[in-house]
Amino acid sequence: MNSLTKDSFMECARHGMQKPAFICKHLRNGRSLGFFVPDEAPTEEEPWKEAWCRVCEQVRINEGSWNDRSELFAGVMPICEACYEEIRQRNQLA
Question: In degrees rounded to 5, what are phi and psi of residue 91?
Fold first, then answer.
């Protein structure tokens, strides 16, 4: 993916042109894996939604923060915002 700006869009095979979002690789096809998001909401300059699973959250905690090791484990990948919402619904724990 090229450099992102606040006005970036991406083409999704299922949803057409959408804003990008980012998830850990585990959430893409997962179910009931937990759905963690940053404490701070997206900003105007960095409006992208982000999420990761319970296992990635534990690795992040063990590492003390996001760093090379925790980010490598997460394998962050871009998806569209519509896919993000579907994935959120599948992975949120009751």
Answer: -110, -10
Read off the tokens for 1: 């993916």
Whether 29 is covered by a domain: the verdict is: yes
2 in any annotated domain: no
Q: What is the pLDDT of residues 29-75, one digit of tens each?
A: 999 999 999 999 989 888 999 999 999 999 999 999 999 999 999 99
CA distances to 25, 61, 92 from 20, rounded to whole Å, are 15, 26, 20
Domain that holds residue 25: 10-91
Residue type present at position 72 = L
Give how many domains the chain has, as a whole number. 1
Q: Above 50 in pLDDT, residue 1?
A: no
Amino acid at residue number 70: S
Predicted model pTM:
0.91
User: What is the Cα–Cα distance from 42 to 85, expressed in whole angstroms?
Assistant: 15
Backbone angles phi, psi at 87, to 5 degrees: -65, -40
